[in-house]
Amino acid sequence: MIEFFDRLARPLLYALDPEDAHRLAIRMLQLAPLPSARPDDRRLATRVFGLNFPNPIGIAAGFDKHAEIPDALIRSGFGFVEVGTVTPLPQSGNPRPRLFRLDTDHGVINRLGFNSEGADAVLRRLAARARAGGIVGINVGANKDAVDRVADYVRGIEKFAPVASYVTVNISSPNTPGLRDLQQATALDDLLARVIEVRERVARHAGPIPVLLKIAPDLALSDLDDVVGIARARRVDGMIVGNTTVTRPAGLRDRQSSEAGGLSGRPLLPLADRMLAETYVRVEGVFPLVGAGGIDSGASALGKIRAGASLIQIYSGLVFRGLGLVGEIKAALLAGLERDGSQNIADYVGTDAAAVTAEAWPS
Ligand SMILES: Cc1cc2nc3c(=O)[nH]c(=O)nc-3n(C[C@H](O)[C@H](O)[C@H](O)COP(=O)(O)O)c2cc1C
């Protein structure tokens, strides 16, 4: 059925402007939700930051920014869904065109700039499905013209803790000027102090809620040292590595590759894997990592787990491979387990991290 949907929908979606295509894909999944995917093999199940995931494959933030289709996505086989980024107040983001598909390179460039329907609208949708089950995290951000950006994150956590499985503090979008400055040591320490303080406060009525930090793949390693040190000291529950890159790897061929914005998809894979492995060796098992960036096959998914990811997330790969990619990754992970005589996908986490950090820096 998913294959049928992919085959029917993709030629149509490809003929449209990428942002219109994305809207249409959301509408299609809303109006004609797919039948449930088969229950997952038990060997794909994994427990990470206190939550039980049926499989380690999630959909990354940015696909369902406004929580319109989390349940359709879970039904189609994802182990978890990350909604958002959501800003406290609605905002329209940057002018269009702001989303570009690099067909030759299998990449995407976006400079959406946190277009968000705002926290109230998203909260209503999440509250309405709160009993539906499934792991739905929320990715929170700051409004572009917020006077106190940290207060925006605090508000996001307060608001969404009762209806979300976890919260991601996104300080790594390249499309809100100055946002990535929150990754600098003093600013990050202040942010995380206030974030963790509100997490403790809301836990008293909403129960414990894991807080993750999503970082950019463009950090210098000396800055990564600081970020990991502060995240450890402030006791975040995990990190997502990472967001889109503002760099342009050598070898891009698509003529749209010089568009401004964050690059994702296949060309991001080497840098994203490297930053994940660099983070893994610095974290020393104190908290788990979510790996995102460039996964578009079973092999790249397993590579991400071996580089240090306890969970993985995909977005751009879906644009080129369709929803069938999720089943393909599951089959590849299970084939790997059979081949190696392993019992659980968790056995692979970080096995290649040290080797990846010893390679030449990806160009
Ligand atoms: C169109 C688009 C919009 C995105 N929007 C967000 C966002 O709102 N918040 C966020 O944290 N990441 C966002 N991302 C980044 C993804 O969550 C992910 O980190 C990145 O794309 C790397 O994964 P991929 O190569 O599988 O796409 C967006 C990515 C794309 C392609």
Short descriptors:
363 residues; alpha/beta; 8-stranded parallel β-barrel; 3-stranded antiparallel β-sheet; 15% strand; globular; binds flavin mononucleotide
Describe this structure in words.
- This protein is an alpha/beta fold and 363 residues long.
- It has twelve helices and 13 strands.
- The protein has helices spanning 2-14, 18-31, 70-75, 119-128, 149-160, 185-206, 221-233, 269-283, 298-306, 316-321, 324-340, 353-357; strands spanning 46-48, 51-53, 57-59, 80-86, 99-102, 107-110, 136-140, 167-170, 211-215, 238-241, 262-265, 289-292, 311-314.
- An eight-stranded parallel beta barrel has the order 3-4-7-8-9-10-12-13, surrounded by five helices. Strands 5-6-11 form a three-stranded antiparallel β-sheet, with no helix packed on it.
- The model has no long low-confidence stretch (mean pLDDT 93).
- Bound molecules: flavin mononucleotide.
- Flavin mononucleotide binds at residues 60-62, 65, 84-85, 99, 108, 110, 112, 139, 170, 173, 214, 243-244, 264-265, 268, 292-295, 314-317.
